[in-house]
Every structure is written in C-alpha cells, then in structure tokens.
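We store amino acids, tokens; thus:
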Amino acid sequence: MSLPRVVTAVLAGALLVAGCGSTSARDDGGSDSLVVGSDAVTETPTPDPGPAPRIDVVADLAPADAGTVGASVNQFGFDLLGRLNDGTENTVTSPVSVASLLAMVLAGAGGQTAEAMAATLHLDDPRDVRVGQLLQQLADTSDVTLAPANALWAQQGVPFEDDYLSFVRDSFGATVDEADLGAQSTADEIDAWVREHTEDRIDGIAGDLGLPDPSAAMVLVNAVYFLGTWTTQFDPADTQAQEFTLPDGGSADVPLMFLRGQTLPFVQRDGYSMLRLPYGADGRFGMEILLPDDAAGLPRLLSSLDASEWAAAVAALTPQELQTVAVPKFELQWDADLGDALTALGMGPAFQDADFRPMSAYPQTLDSVVHKTYIRVDEAGTEAAAVTGGVTRSSAGENFRVDRPFAFTISDSQTGTIVFLGAVTDPRG
C-alpha cells in the first residue's frame, strides 16, 4: 500500500540556548554582538568573561570534501549507537541530525570545549563545521526529496556575537527572529514549526527543551526532509504474517513483505550479510540492511561495526540475483537523552565549565541533548522523522530473510553519508 503522507523521512534538530540577564537593546549592525529586542531586565550587570574569540569557520564544502565530512558524520553515528544500544532493544537514530545540531553548537564554542566537541564529531578543525554544507549536497537530487530548513529564535534583549549569527545564517541558511522565549505562544510557535516540518510525526520539541522559560536565550531548529519510494516496490498482496525471532529466543508473528526473483546489491561479510534496497529511479539513496548470520548475532555485530567496516561492506556490494527477499513491515518510535552518551564519547567539556564565548558573552554550558525519532517501513517505501534538541543554560545466501534482529542504515551513495542508522529487535515496537 502507499505511504499515507508525502514526506518519507524527516530529520529535525533543535537547540535551546538558555541564559540570564541582558543589556539594553541594540541592533545597529556595526557592533561585535547583536542584541535583539528591547524589553530585557537590566538591573544585574553582565559579568565580563573577556573578549570573545572570532569564529573563522570553514563554511564552504568542495565536492571532494563531501565524502570526508560524511565519513566523520558516519563514525560519530556508529560511536553514538554503540553507547545507546547493546543489541537487545530497538534504536533509531539520525547521525546527520545530531551532528547538524552539534555542529551549530560547535560554531559557538571556543578553547577546550571546541576541541572536545570537534574530536567527538571526528572533525579535524574545531571550526571546520561543514555539516550544513553537507546537508545542501545531500539535498541536491531530483530522485528523492531532501530539503533542509533552519530557524533561530533569539530572546529579546540578549546579545549574540555577529560572527556566530552570520555563520548560522550563511552556512545553515537559518532565519533569525526575536521572540519572548518565556511566553507559551513562542513555545507553541516552535512546536508548530516542528510539526509542519515533520508532517506531524513529531509533536514538538519545546516541552522537551523546558520552554516556555524566561531565562532562555536562543532556540535553534534544524529540519531536513527526505521523500523516497522503493525502486522496486513490494506487492501488498504478498505481505503475510511470519515468525520473527526475538532477542530472548522467543518469537512473534510480524508482517513480512516479499520480493521474488530480484537482482539487488548484496554482499556476505564476516558474521553478517548486507542488502541494499534502493529508492527512486537512479538509486542514489537506499536502505542497507545488515543481517547477522544467526539470531543472537546483533550484539556482536554492533560491538564491531564502525564507519570503516560499513564503508567497506557498501563498497563490496555487487548485484546478485536473489530468489526471495523478505523484509519486516514496521513502525517504531524512539527517544533518548544523549547527554551521558556524548559525555562518554568525550564531549564532557561542553557540559561542564564550557566556553561558548564565540556564541555569546553570557557564560553557559550544554545542559542536555534529546533525540526523538520515528520510522515506518511499508510496501511503498520509508517514512522517518527525527528531532534533536540541545539546551544550554548559564553558568545471507540466495534468500535474504530478515526474520531476526537486524541493523539498518539509510544512506546517500554519492557522498557516502548515513542519514538514518538503527537496530530493530522487535518490529512490533
């Protein structure tokens, strides 16, 4: 059957920057910082943290660099998945969504904070934040629809460095608006923006970020749309309930979709096999299914899988005639606070004694990062959505039968970038 909505997959990232105090309003375009609005509290003077370093970001992404930046996003995605899932539960992440959010934060970081964030994201230069440009290259296709959108809401009266705002505008194409982040109407506006850009698959992000909050300073939202249908669609008449082995050794009946007599990119690796199901006419985007050789193999696969192994497997894919392909039809929702995982990966300085002076003179730390996702796979294609929010505050063989836990990616063959990455242990959700 057809997908119920025109949008097949959506990524959305959101950043809430919270602070306190303000100076008088000013936006004359000639100062080193921007103050939005005029209703700020001025009784408490702003502490002087010293001069803010300028942001000399690398905003342009040459075609030859797309693969390099995509590989950085991929490795970060596998690092993160390894911290979130030991192979015993469902997990759906969007590496490019989380990386996009953190890249925008990184653009406002300095010193040890910038170095730690860049290292976690596998970027060589702390100010080489080119993920926004990568998103534009991902969207440069007529075979599927993948369009980024970005918005920034700045608290009235709170100053932000011109360099930072220019980067967000120029590299990510963000609109900048002033708003009362302590008002419910602003929170409702942000949630409405999220719903609009995720086709209502994600209700919103404001509540997860603690809005409304009069001490909030800034909200950044990044959304990317992806629409694709299978190059060869499954016939709904062939879908039937079949056994799926669960991690505990039991089984459950789930709907399996069938293709027969198809030639598809396939490879057998050490301990698992990979099949690629392409989208659209030219197959630039596709879903790679990584199927362990046995029902208990997903934990072993996830513990050894990294961007290098994934790239090697993709490079080894060759067309093979498959007698039968059976893939679960599934719909999943997932969410997690990524703070502990990001700290474990080396981003601790962003959460403690952080240096975000390139963003604003107000001292602040990254308080939490929340990731919420949705994915649906049916006979027509794939629909997915992801929202990432960050808060800163002051201070197999001829037959390929997916009837056991498996991992998956949705990637772009042109840049080699993984758009979605996850593991399915129970298609029932």
About this structure: The chain has two domains: 9-41+63-229+332-394, 236-328+398-424. The chain has nine helices and 18 strands.
